[in-house]
UniProtKB/TrEMBL annotation:
<keyword id="KW-0813">Transport</keyword>
<keyword id="KW-0809">Transit peptide</keyword>
<protein>
    <recommendedName>
        <fullName>F-ATPase gamma subunit</fullName>
    </recommendedName>
</protein>
<dbReference type="Pfam" id="PF00231">
    <property type="entry name" value="ATP-synt"/>
</dbReference>
<dbReference type="InterPro" id="IPR000131">
    <property type="entry name" value="ATP_synth_F1_gsu"/>
</dbReference>
<dbReference type="GO" id="GO:0046933">
    <property type="term" value="F:proton-transporting ATP synthase activity, rotational mechanism"/>
</dbReference>
<keyword id="KW-0066">ATP synthesis</keyword>
<dbReference type="GO" id="GO:0045259">
    <property type="term" value="C:proton-transporting ATP synthase complex"/>
</dbReference>
<keyword id="KW-0472">Membrane</keyword>
<comment type="similarity">
    <text>Belongs to the ATPase gamma chain family.</text>
</comment>
<dbReference type="InterPro" id="IPR035968">
    <property type="entry name" value="ATP_synth_F1_ATPase_gsu"/>
</dbReference>
<keyword id="KW-0793">Thylakoid</keyword>
<keyword id="KW-0375">Hydrogen ion transport</keyword>
<keyword id="KW-0406">Ion transport</keyword>
<keyword id="KW-0934">Plastid</keyword>
<keyword id="KW-0150">Chloroplast</keyword>
<dbReference type="InterPro" id="IPR023632">
    <property type="entry name" value="ATP_synth_F1_gsu_CS"/>
</dbReference>
Length: 360
């Protein structure tokens, strides 16, 4: 869709979303819809709202289809992550009596925290980006109150623009995701946080993203990326595991001649890990190679979750804009018909009055 169409959709959907407020401000106590324009302007406004309705409805359906693909990407990556957790857990059981020192699991007193913030690449998605950035501001205030130094790694155009307008927030790096997240995108973030943590420039790395819950809900959460647990557990700042037990998929179907979205629960079964395993290499060396791989998979999954949340928010926002456009179009049509009827009635009265004058 062209940029002009997007700007039209934005301005018109904003007009549609504020129609209720304007109506309440300009509506008398009788409940009528008052407009201050002639019939030609009313027809133009009705046509404009009709075009906006078509655009927002199309954007809603496109977002619904993309949500399904984005959620399928999250579900398809789950067996790999679960199997990798099983490998890490069993290897940790093998070497738990040994005194090991792995760079990514090395805990030290926290003096500086790196906060990775994942936002969207585009707008027209309601309060999605705003909720993530508010969560980031809240976390930054918490770090300040704790007396800790911090730096921000922004991923996404919306977050980049937000932090650029706030030079008082230290920004380590700005990154952008062109479209669907790939392993290359997650690897760039992984390499950056790995180098910051191993070089001891930061003592802790936290990841802030919007976790996809359902079609109408997504929760901004913060999870600790580094230091990692040797068991591969990824938890939030409060120690609560952030891995979901089941996912929700959405299927675009037709109902009563209209496109609609149906949801279904999907639970992924993973194969049990064999308790009897012999390692050809030193388990410490294997762990040292697997932990960065697991870190990369977690960042990729967070990118996919964030994309699914953004698309779901865009679908909901476009749905609301479409509903508001329908309501505004209905009110304008009523006002148009009333004004047209009044004009016709006035002309008839003038004709009757003229005929009476001639007859008298």
């Amino acid at each position: 869709m062209s940029s002009s169409h997007l700007s039209t959709a934005w301005s018109s959907s904003a007009l549609a979303s504020s129609s209720t407020r304007r109506q309440s401000a300009s509506t008398p106590r009788s409940g009528g819809f008052v407009v201050r324009c002639n019939l030609r302007e009313l027809r133009s406004r009705i046509d404009s709202v009709r075009n906006t309705q078509k655009i927002t409805e199309a954007m809603k359906l496109v977002a619904a289809a993309k949500v399904r693909r984005a959620q399928e990407a999250v579900v398809s990556s789950r067996p790999f992550s679960e199997a990798l957790v099983e490998v890490l857990y069993n290897m940790n059981q093998e070497i738990q009596t040994e005194d090991i020192d792995l760079p990514l699991t090395r805990s030290r007193p926290v003096k500086k925290v790196a906060l990775v913030v994942l936002t969207g690449e585009r707008g027209l998605c309601g309060s999605f980006n705003n909720n993530v950035l508010k969560k980031a501001e809240t976390r930054i205030d918490e770090l300040k109150q704790l007396g800790l130094d911090y730096t921000v790694i922004s991923v996404g155009k919306k977050g980049n623009g937000y932090f650029q307008r706030r030079p008082y927030i230290p920004l380590e790096r700005e990154l952008e995701i062109g479209g669907v997240p790939t392993v290359k995108d997650s690897q760039a973030i992984c390499d950056l946080v790995y180098s910051l943590f191993v070089s001891e420039e930061v003592d802790k790395v936290e990841l802030l993203y919007s976790k996809f819950v359902s079609l109408v809900r997504s929760d901004p959460i913060i999870q600790t990326l580094l230091p990692m647990s040797p068991k591969g557990e990824i938890c939030d700042v409060n120690g609560v595991c952030v891995d979901a037990t089941e996912d929700e998929l959405f299927r675009l179907t037709t109902k009563e001649g209209k496109l609609t979205v149906e949801r279904e629960k999907v639970k992924i079964e993973t194969q049990p890990f064999s308790p009897v395993v012999q390692f050809e290499q030193d388990p410490v060396q294997i762990l040292d190679a697997l932990l960065p791989l697991y870190l990369n998979s977690q960042i990729l999954r967070a990118l996919q979750e964030s994309l699914a949340s953004e698309l779901a928010a865009r679908m909901s926002a476009m749905s609301s804009a479409t509903d508001n456009a329908i309501e505004l179009r209905k009110n304008l049509s009523i006002a148009y018909n009333r004004q047209r009827q009044a004009k016709i009635t006035g002309e008839i009265l003038e004709i009757v009055a003229g005929a009476d004058a001639l007859a008298g």
